[in-house]
């Protein structure tokens, strides 16, 4: 798993280990040997769109021709509605500077947003971005998506939590593993066709996770997605996955990236 230089420096500064999934050093147990081999994918770019390169993308959702996004950094965190074709920000609301915006999902007519280390989330009206309520949780807040029944939340560890979408209380959890090895730094999430797609912080990899078992079924290697000419000044890591179930389109971007991509997965030969 590739780690960008800038990301590695940030990781060092924060005293964190990148979330590499090395082969387990110890022998696998009987149950683990029954897990099928991981499928490896690369990608094909179908479309690319201009994007606000000042957006520190932490949460990304697609609905009805628009993207909804949560941006991070203290003093710069927002919830916004973005025009897919032009990248233009159509509507935006800023968070109090004490909050660092994180995962975002759409539930019925509301947008639900996490914050990083302040243990508070916000529920907004999707139409006018007014805050309808807030809720609390004990972990950090990283990624958020939903499967039609439950919210699905990551906290930077290898655990993914399921939350009741109405009470916003945790109802269950899974431990994400690649053939027994915990996968940490699970960041932005998207529920796609019965699987959880997850950005792994500080890498160019997306893990495709079985929500029932927590097993990583596939890895998608997005190395080289952002071309060097699009990257004249600092950008941060790949982060942000959104899915259009009607058009069957998969969108990805990154923190401070000037482009958003529609991609297709291509099996690695
Ligand atoms: N998280 O998204 C992985 C949960 C947190 C990312 C925090 C990155 C801090 C970067 C600070 C950069 C200061 C210019
Ligand atoms: Ca997402």
Features:
single chain; 269 residues; mainly beta; 4-stranded antiparallel sheet; 5% helix; globular; disordered N terminus; binds decylamine-N,N-dimethyl-N-oxide; binds calcium ion
The mean pLDDT is 91
Name the strands of the widest sheet in spatial order: 16-17-18-19-1-22-21-20
**Shape label:** globular
Question: What pattern of helices and strands is seen along the backbone?
Answer: HHEEEEEEEEEEEEEEEEEEEEEE
Distance between the termini: 17 Å
By DSSP, the count of extended strands is: 22
Strand content: over 45%
Tell me the major beta sheet: 8 strands, mixed
Alpha carbon gyration radius: 17 Å
Low-pLDDT stretches: 1-6, 8-28
Helix content: under 10%
**Structural class from helices and strands?**
mainly beta
The number of helical runs is 2
Identify every distinct bound molecule in the structure, by name, code or SMILES: decylamine-N,N-dimethyl-N-oxide, calcium ion
Summarize the structure.
By secondary structure, the protein is mostly beta strands.
